[in-house]
Write a structure and sequence with these properties.
The complex is a heterodimer of chains A (about 475) and B (about 110). Chain A is an alpha/beta fold and about 475 residues long. Helix content of chain A is about 40%, strand content about 15%. Chain A has helices spanning about 10-15, 20-40, 50-65, 105-115, 155-165, 180-185, 220-230, 250-255, 275-290, 305-320, 340-350, 355-365, 370-395, 420, 430-435, 465-479; strands spanning about 45, 75-80, 115-120, 170-175, 190, 210-215, 260-265, 295, 400, 440-445, 450-460. An 11-stranded mixed sheet of chain A has the order 1-3-2-4-6-5-10-11-9-7-8, with helices on both faces. In chain A, strand 7, helix 9 (about 275-290) and strand 8 form a beta-alpha-beta unit. In chain A, helix 2 packs antiparallel against helix 3 (about 50-65) and helix 10 (about 305-320) packs across helix 12. The mean pLDDT of chain A is about 95. Chain B has about 110 residues and is mostly helical. Chain B has a domain at about 5-45: Histone, subunit A (Orthogonal Bundle), CATH 1.10.20. Chain B contains 3 helices and no strands. Chain B has helices at about 5-15, 20-40, 90-95. The model of chain B has no long low-confidence stretch (mean pLDDT about 85). The interface between A and B is large, with 78 and 65 residues.
């Protein structure tokens, strides 16, 4: 039994049936991390004590013949923008190099309450700002499918860990595509739930009206299991929705026959790589073959999504990152003679280039004289984008698109051109702005054996439908 | 809109960032390139379009309720006014760069 290749249910069943122990499972993953991670760079901090204590707890339940909780003994990794009590959390930034959170992120707490074994914290772009995991203050992450290429970002570590069997499943965060795009680049499943579906309590904030936490996993079913565990109202997050959590795994079982799937022409234009187009179109054909009705439609404001995003997200980020001032936690510049100098130097030394770029852009967009032209304007365009989706969802149940215009690009290829890096998010940002859920599921490969992801976008709180469609794509892709 | 170095310095000031000369130059170039791209938003007529700061006003709340009752679910029943649980003192000071055991210590505030 290859312990590192097990899915959530198989791992839990093996521990329950005492074919293996949760401790052996955790050790198998740590051994894999020892062997493989030096060339990938996915993990920043390992939480061995915490992991082995939890594993022992699960083993003791199994030994007594008691029923394990749904993720009993299952090793998971957590993106380093989610706080973990007592375990160093850095948001991949120097400004939090030695930060030890005094509390747990709700999503992490829920996973642990369900028996999951937290292996450690995963590398990402600094403060979740990036599309390639090259903005980590510590080191970039390499794509396990091709070490000369990026894993995508900002949840690059989360995607790579799953792809390289260094975790059964991971948690990532998505603000502009940061779960879906790396999932697509690494050939794993990445689910971004509806805004408000999963509590943001304990997620180090980037853009509060956009941020989401979601799972990355090897299978659609595993993603559904994790979502079922972490979703639901949380009194600690006032934006978490009071919407009941359906059994997402049961939803998966439903057939896709009869579903109407929209294909938006704006996602299939000039910038789309021909290999990606081939894979995605083939997957859509297979869905049609399974009885889905393909409906051509238009989301006319798509081309305005990136500029809208880069105003809204950076403006919100400039506000959220104001808390890093060297006073209560994090890096403090040692040579400051005044309070003001301390703020300014701590922040300039502690933040990386991309973070500073976004803070400056966001502050500019909010500053007097520019607020109307930029921030307010972007908020109005956001409404137009939402209306595009509302119109489309009157006619279809879900929308299928490529996740990214290209497959994984080379390390270093886009670092000197921030705008080109931003444009990599072109298919993913729309869903973040609209608040709708989206999933990326592997649907094929390019000629160079690089994974291609198909993105399925759904109505608010309709993760069930997108999981169903993703399940069908997954089945078609593995036969 | 063309951004000047003076703008970058002004904005950096607002954002409490002490940029080096090199950083200022790079940011100037990047800012102009990005804002140039972002300017296409002005192509859209948004005269009667309401601004959307937060999607959850439209979704995920009980539409039949109005005003603050809509967000009543977000208030915690287990915490009464004045009895809020907070972090123990030591935990709160644990990550502090400099503390005297009671307060966070910072350099003097000097009038500029």
């Amino acid at each position: 039994m290859d312990l590192n290749a097990l899915t959530i249910e198989a791992a839990r069943a093996a521990v329950q049936a005492r074919e293996t122990t949760a401790t052996s499972l955790a050790e198998a993953f740590y051994a894999k991390i020892d062997k493989t991670d030096p060339e990938i760079g996915a993990y920043l901090t390992l939480s061995k004590d915490r992991a082995l204590e939890q594993a022992a707890r699960m083993d003791s339940l199994a030994a007594k013949g008691e029923e394990l909780p749904p993720l009993g003994g299952v090793p998971v990794g957590i993106k380093d923008v989610l706080v973990t009590r007592g375990v160093r959390t850095t948001a991949s930034s120097k400004i939090l190099a030695n930060y030890i959170p005094p509390y747990d992120c709700t999503a992490v707490a829920r996973l642990e309450a369900a028996g999951a074994v937290v292996l450690g914290k995963l590398n990402c772009d600094e403060f979740a700002m990036g599309s390639s995991n090259e903005n980590s203050a510590w080191r970039p992450v390499r794509n396990p499918r091709d070490l000369s290429r990026v894993p995508g970002g900002s949840s690059g570590g989360s995607a790579a860990a799953v792809a390289a069997d260094m975790a059964v499943a991971t948690l990532g965060s998505d603000t502009g595509g940061s779960i879906r795009q790396p999932a697509s680049f690494c050939g794993v499943v990445g689910l971004m739930p509806t805004y408000g579906r999963v509590s943001r309590y304990g997620l180090i904030a980037f853009a509060s009206s956009l941020d989401r936490i979601g799972p990355l996993a090897k299978t659609v079913r595993d993603a559904a299991i994790v979502l079922r565990t972490i979703a639901g109202r949380d009194p600690m997050d006032a934006t978490s929705a009071e919407v009941p959590v359906p059994d997402y795994v049961a939803e998966l079982e439903k057939p896709v026959r009869g579903l109407k799937l929209g294909v938006a022409k704006e996602y299939f234009g000039k910038g789309l790589d021909s290999e990606v187009r081939k894979s995605v179109e083939a997957a859509i054909q297979k869905l049609a073959g399974s009885g889905c009705e393909i409906v051509p439609l238009s989301l006319p404001h798509t081309e305005y999504a990136i500029p809208t995003y880069y105003i809204v997200a950076t403006a919100e980020a400039s506000s959220n990152l104001a808390r890093f001032d060297g006073v209560r936690y994090g890096y403090r510049a040692g040579d400051a003679r005044t309070l003001s100098e301390m703020y300014r130097r701590s922040r300039d030394h502690g933040f990386g280039a991309e973070v500073k770029r976004r803070i400056i852009l966001g502050t500019y967009a909010l500053s007097a004289g520019y607020y109307d032209a930029y921030y307010l304007k972007a908020q109005r365009v956001r409404t137009l984008l939402v209306q595009d989706f509302e119109e489309a969802f009157k006619r279809v149940d879900a929308i299928v698109t490529p996740t990214s215009p290209t497959a994984a690009f080379k390390l270093g290829e886009k670092v000197d051109d921030p705008l080109s890096m931003y444009l990599a998010d072109i298919f993913t940002v729309t869903a973040d702005l609209a608040g709708i859920p989206g999933i990326s599921v592997p649907c094929g490969e390019t000629k160079e054996n690089l994974p291609v992801g198909l993105q399925i976008l759904g109505k608010h709180f309709d993760e069930g439908t997108i999981l169903r469609v993703a399940g069908a794509v997954e089945r078609a892709n593995t036969t | 809109m063309k951004v000047t170095e003076k703008d970058v310095v002004y904005v950096a000031d607002l954002a409490n960032l002490e940029l080096t000369q090199d950083e200022r130059q790079l940011l100037l170039r990047d800012l102009n390139s990005i804002l140039d791209y972002v300017d296409r938003l002005s192509q859209l007529d948004t005269t009667d379009v309401p601004a959307m700061a937060q999607v959850s006003d439209r979704y995920g709340v009980d539409q039949s309720r109005t005003g603050s009752a809509r967000f009543a679910y977000a208030s915690r029943e287990d915490i009464l006014e004045g009895l809020r649980k907070s972090l123990p003192h030591e935990a709160a000071l644990q990550n502090a760069p400099d503390t005297d055991g009671t307060f966070f210590k910072v350099p003097k505030v000097i009038e500029r």
